[in-house]
Amino acid sequence: MAQSPLADRLQWAGSERPSDIPDDAFRLLVESVRDYAIFMLDPTGHIATWNAGAERIKGYRAAEIVGKHFSVFYPPDVVASGKCELELAIATEQGRFEEEGLRIRKDGSPFWANVTITALRDAQQRLVGFAKVTRDLSERRAAEEETRRFRLLVESVKDYAIFILDTSGHVATWNAGAERIKGYRALEIIGKHFSVFYPPDAVAAGICETELTVAEATGRFAAEGTRVRKDGSEFWASVTITALRDPNGELIGFAKVTRDLTDRLAAEESRRDLAVQMAALAEKARIQEFQERFLGILGHDLRNPLASMDMGAALLRQRTEDANSLRIIDRIQTSSLRMSRMIEQIIELTRSRLGGGLPINARPVDLEQVLLSMVEELRAAYPEQAIELSCEPTTGHWDPDRLEQVFSNLVSNALAHGDPTKPVSIRLRREEGAVIVEIHNHGVPLTEELKARIFDPFRRGDRDSRTQRTAGLGLGLYISNELVRAHGGRMEVESSTAEGTVFRVILPPEAPASALAEAPIA
Q1: 85: phi then psi, degrees, rounded to nearest 5
Q2: How large is the angle between the packed helices 400-417 and 367-381, nearest 10 degrees?
Q3: Are the C-beta atoms of residues 257 and 173 closer than 8 Å to each other?
Q4: Which 3-state string (H, E, C) describes 273-285?
Q5: 69: which DSSP letter?
Q6: Which helix (H) or strand (E) holds 203?
Q7: What whole-number distance in Å separates Cα of residue 488 and Cα of residue 46?
Q8: Residue 496, SS3?
Q9: What pLDDT score does 449 carry?
């Protein structure tokens, strides 16, 4: 160990160096220590000796540092505060000074050190210097700082429950995420067995013990399952248990990380539901497209023969004036017209059945104008029969085309099956929040059996084809009733020998909101 002449006079305060250790051996012992900087200071703080450990830790060679003041190892602001003098004063008064703090190497880099300064006195107890031992704690300090930061990180995490179990499964630590997810405060849960987080049937089945056994044997256990909060509510969680071992491989506990997957599970279920709904909508659209194409082809193929019949009848009418031939041509054209209407009704009915209802395009409507326009057309078609119309000004939101279809069908039936010597009357009025249209004719009354199923030609029962034809029972009335129902209304019928037959259409002032559309009053 490099030294000054002063070193030969120094003794350890409080005890003498053992006499059985030769001076050279003791010197070699100190010089060989490399993990500690061991050196001597004179009473004023100047360096008197220097060992290999001091050179390794502080970076100075003995020739560079012996004779310099030990303040060179301290940051400038610390030196300026008088700390070096204070340390020597404490060591002088108390015999010893110890602390941890920043020190400076030769290259100017700081490091964290443990420092001990011991006063050295001669046989007469006069202060002759100081022994200074410095240990570099940088690695330990870094490890402690890393541990501290990691602990702060774990404690501050709120999206994951992160805690430690002892070897038997009892809770040893608790973070903010664990409190948020599981509902327990640290004081409530530390020391309790982690089985409190599991449903009773899982605990009874030994799931907790199995998880720890797997983690101990393989190093890790991971699964998803149901867990229980403090309030008893269940949630779906992702759980990872990791075995913790000391440097010798001995099991010292388990790290447990739990993540609440309730939101993810709900999102996945929502995505699955949406996928199912989208698939159903796509399939429905595909079916509807096929149905519309089929109905279009059907209508075209059924109407083609009628078009040929109409063209043939028109040509025959141009080439003959024979009364009997003209009557036959009239019957052909009338039958063709009737068949055309039946085709329209069949297609409309099929579309209604397949599509879940007849489409309604409701918009602002003056119902009086709809009836006036319809009556004008019917008077032209039936010039020999009288049609009476009584209206109150009535506006609302309906589908004028659909309602005209309903009223035209009802009035046409009344004209066709009523007493031709008596007028068909139409009355429009408002009554107690409803709009009512009545079509009245005189003729053969409907039987009770027919009245019971007049709006449903598919209803089972005894069928009297002659009476059906007399009453006009068929697809027209069924579709008319469906159209009224689509408007949120209903149809009624009354029939007697004395009063004749009345078909009553009762509508709300407004069609259902889902059917409304912006349009000018028709």
Answers
A1: -60, -40
A2: 40
A3: no
A4: HHHHHHHHHHHHH
A5: B
A6: helix 200-204
A7: 107
A8: strand
A9: 83
Contacts of residue 214, defined as CB under 8 A and 6 or more positions apart, other chains included, come to 221, 241
448, two tokens: 């009770």
Average pLDDT for residues 109-131, to the nearest whole number? 93
DSSP 221-241: EEEEEEEE-TTS-EEEEEEEE
Beta bridge partners of 96: 118
Q: Report the C-alpha gap between 89 and 107 in whole angstroms.
A: 28
How confident is residue 32, by pLDDT bands cut at 50, 70 and 90?
low
Contact predicate 475/457, CB 8 Å? yes
Residue type, position 279, single letter: A
Q: Report DSSP state, residue 9.
A: G
Q: Percentage of the chain with pLDDT > 70?
A: 81
- Can you read off the two tokens belonging to residue 455? 């709006």
Q: What average pLDDT does the segment 64-89 reach? A: 95
User: Under DSSP, is residue 498 helix (H, G, I), strand (E, B) or coil?
Assistant: coil
DSSP assignment of 180-197, as one string? Answer: HHH---HHHHTTSBGGGG
* Joined tokens for residue 121: 């006195």
**Rounded distance between C-alpha atoms, residue 289 and residue 282, angstroms:** 10
| Of the candidates 395, 409, 406, the residue with the CA atom closest to the CA atom of residue 367 | 395
DSSP-derived secondary structure for 330-393: HHHHHHHHHHHHHHHHHHHHHHHHHHTS----BEEEEHHHHHHHHHHHHHHH-TTS-EEEEE--
Structure tokens at 360: 């309604």
pLDDT at residue 485 tops 60 = yes
CA dihedral (275, 278, 280, 282) in degrees, to 10, reads: -140
DSSP 420: T
Containing 164, the helix (H) or strand (E) segment is: strand 160-165
Q: Answer whether 54's CB lies under 8 Å from 34's CB.
A: no
For helices 475-486 and 400-417, the axis angle rounded to 10 degrees is 150
How much is the pLDDT for 150? 60
Task: State the Cα angle at 453 between 346 and 379, rounded to 5°.
Answer: 60
